[in-house]
Structures are given as C-alpha cells and as structure tokens.
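Many introductory courses stop at the sequence. We go one step further.
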Amino acid sequence: MQTIFISIKCERGKAYEVADELVDLPEVSEVHSTSGQYDLLVKCYLPDGQDIGHFVTERVQTQPDIADTFTTIAFKAFG
C-alpha cells in the first residue's frame, strides 16, 4: 500500500464542495481543512503498483473547483 498526501488549493469559496467530492473516492482516507497556502490536505492509500501520477492527474485534479495541487509521497509511518 502506498500512502500519499495531496495539498489542494480550491477556487474561492469552494473548499467544502471539493472536500465533499473527494471523500467519496475509495482511495481517500481523510480530508482536512487547513490554513495557509492550501485549503485541504487529503490522505490517500493507493494499491502497490498504482501509478500515483495518473491517480492525481486523472482522479483528483479533474474534480471541479480544484485550482492547484501539491503531492507528497510518504515513505514510512511511525507509531
């Protein structure tokens, strides 16, 4: 299982709508509202071998009202 975190910048006033759409994706574990440069932080679990780039560009970035994303690949969880 691969763990990735996606920081998402939404169009103004659309963070809640975007979050509601993303929680329905089966790969999405958690969606958090955040302060700062990005509006949402999304934790995803992808099966081993699934292409992260295709998931982000085809399943996440194509959602309405997403202006920008920043993806972080997690190596190991502690505790």
